[in-house]
Amino acid sequence: MEAIILAGGLGTRLREVIWDLPKPMAPVGGKPFLHYILERLEMQGVRRVILAVGYKHETISSYFGHRFGQIRIAYSVEEEPLGTGGALKKAMTQISSDQVLVLNGDTLFQVDIPQLVQVHKERAADLTLSLKPMKRFDRYGAVIVSSDCRVLSFEEKRMCESGLINGGVYVARTDLWDPFELLAPFSFEQFLGSPNAQKLHMYGFPSEGYFIDIGIPEDYERAKSELGIGSGGR
The pTM is what? Predict the structure, then answer.
């Protein structure tokens, strides 16, 4: 399984604490946050990764180069902002198989990737989303699924006592976009919630694995305390 990591985010909400670094390069325990994502992928057998990069992409490529342990790294560079959907669509042109693992570069979710891929194949899904059960949250919208985990809808952000959120790890068919006329820039997340996307066979994969999203300063500080001492990311 090849993987694409969406690593082109501006990190505007983190600008006050990481200055002018791309969000995946935010330092955690003396290493970029992206290091922990790649480390997890290597442990689970991924051997080729495309980094979809944009803002200050030279910072990422000069640090990681073209190899991380046993992982070969290639780059898909946004010359102009494409949005997460446009960046993913562009990066998929470098994938050789008909399925690809997709991850957000600012989120670490310790999903069992081989099991996620197996479930995706068994259901003949177009897209399978990792889902994190969460209690009392308002930062994320809830994902509504059927009894067999077919994705039914995406709710707007609001206070929820409990529910499932999109964990930012996916398995997708590389021809996912074929039925749609999508012009960049566009948001992958907004595409998933659009009426058109309901034509897709989308399934959820709930997991209780460790989850951290460094998109806001408070959770970035939590990542530094949890991953920095090796308790959460290994």
Answer: 0.92
